[in-house]
Specification:
Strands 1-9-10-8-11-12-13 form a seven-stranded mixed β-sheet, sandwiched between helices. A six-stranded mixed β-sheet has the order 3-4-2-5-6-7, covered by helices on one side. Strands 14-15-16 form a three-stranded mixed β-sheet. The longest helix has 19 residues. It is of the alpha/beta class. Helices cover 33% and strands 20% of the residues.
Length: 487
Amino acid sequence: MTSTAEKKLPLVVIFGRTNVGKSTLFNCLTESRRALTSEIAGTTRDANRAVVNWRGRDFELCDTGGIIDLGRFEGRQKKFTLRAENENEIQAKIEEQAKKILAGADLILFLVDNKIGLTADDRRMIGAVRRMMPAKQKRLLLVANKVDSRSQAARSKVFLGLGLGAPALVSAATGSGTGDLLDLILEKLSGKKAANLGKPAEDATREPEAAPEIKILIVGKPNVGKSSLLNKILGEERVIVSPIPHTTREPQDALITYRGKHYRLIDSAGISRSGQQKVFKDKQSDRLIKYGIAKTLGRLHEADLAILVIDASQPLTHQDAHIADEIVSSGRGLLIAANKWDLVADQDAKKFANYLYGKLPFIAWAPIQATSALTGAKVDKLLALAEKINDQSAISLADKEAENFLKKMVKLHKPAKGKGVKHPRLYEFKQVAVRPPRFSVRIGAKDDLHFSYLRFMMNRLRDKYGFIGTPIFIEVEKNKRVHGRAD
């Protein structure tokens, strides 16, 4: 059904023990703040991915989750002795994901902390990679992070003991040395998949044309199946899935192509009231959960539309309504994925739609697609619906067409008054924006139009033109008054 655009590019993986600055370096090289960063060990869970363009050439950069238990990473240990069982399960999946990513890497940036120096874990980690992936030894590039001065650069000699040669020196926090590092990455990749490296350096002045993308944020409460849904759409285990709430801590991007269209799917952290308001017993986890929710809401405003994933086997909650309201307020398109449909006893789609729209009448214009991330049922229909919603949000009415629409509305239903004793007069109706569609209706200076009439106009717009899955906004403007009279 799909194909990932990133697979066509060389893969460069940032790897190293926890807290050496992998996510900070990822953000620096990709010129983004996509990866969540903190001083808390194990902050990154899912691998972050992005395409980097340097000197006209492209490669995919991947930031892996931190390896906490080297024994289990090598398959010699199955359980942690000092961590909770839930965290144990998630960490095992992080480490398994890291191994798969490393196996497919064209170049591995082994990152070390120059301020701390060479540690036993650094040695053990390099040894583990060499034992598990002997063919990757020539694809290892040592990078010393947190080098902010000449005196600190001198300390990097200690890393020669790893047998990887002199490290590339960078400061991910300030960007120092990253240009030289990118040059070195291109040099190392030049003998590997050279045809996929993009344009030659002499053409670097010409900006590459980026293929248009439809950006879709997959959002919902914890444990409704967002990550499982993304994996099923992609046809691979891209993000970590577990029954533990807030497993996903930060939005995860995946580029795919479907029926000739390019999509950026963004899996997000589960949004919960507890995550936004309460303080957990584990203050570090509480802090990371809040960061993840904030980043999710930030990505919502970058998206073209959102897929709101709900658990169809459970009653709707206030949190479902809250998330739906956030999406509508942002002006994004909306598609509802009624997931876990395989667990619904009475699989009556019409009955379920009446129930959902009855509970959330303010999104009655959003299409519902029953899905099962477990079985894959109907998952393939989501992207087709998303494409339709994206097209509908771009519908534009010419001024003459909007004027004729207004005349028909006034004949069909006399404008309802808000305050006062007379019905308001509608002078003009026009579309002022798309994505989302926004309209303006102009009334008399002393008139007042009841909000129910605006709702009536929105419904008739949908009846005539569609606007499927996209919110409609109508602003009321009043005629200006000059010398006590309306223009």
